[in-house]
Each structure stands twice: as C-alpha cells, then as structure tokens.
Write a structure and sequence with these properties.
Layout (H helix, E strand, L loop, with lengths): L1 E4 L9 H5 L5 E4 L2 E4 L10 H5 L5 E4 L1
Antiparallel strand pairs: 1-4, 2-3
Amino acid sequence: MKPQVDVSKCTGCGTCAEVCPAEVFDLAEEKSVVARPEDCTECETCVDNCPEEAITLVD
C-alpha cells in the first residue's frame, strides 16, 4: 500500500513531510506530494498526523 494525498483537503502544512520516517513526501505548489512512494513503509504516521485527514494508504 502507498500513501495518496487528497489535494482538495491538503492545506500544505507540511506535517506529513515532517513526521514521515522514510521521507516520502515533498511540498510542491503549496500541497503535499508523494515524491518517493517506493520508500513508504506503511507505518501510517502520515495518516495519523495529518490535521486535514488528507492522506490515505491505497493498494
């Protein structure tokens, strides 16, 4: 499973990029992007910490 960002919910706060131990996320154009999905360890830290609930893990 890999993280997916709902850009309609994302406010670009950067929390996911700060908390992700695998450094999967980058910020681009004031939104979070999954820059390195292959590095995701499925720990769900991004899901648990996103204040906008904009991140889900998908197959």
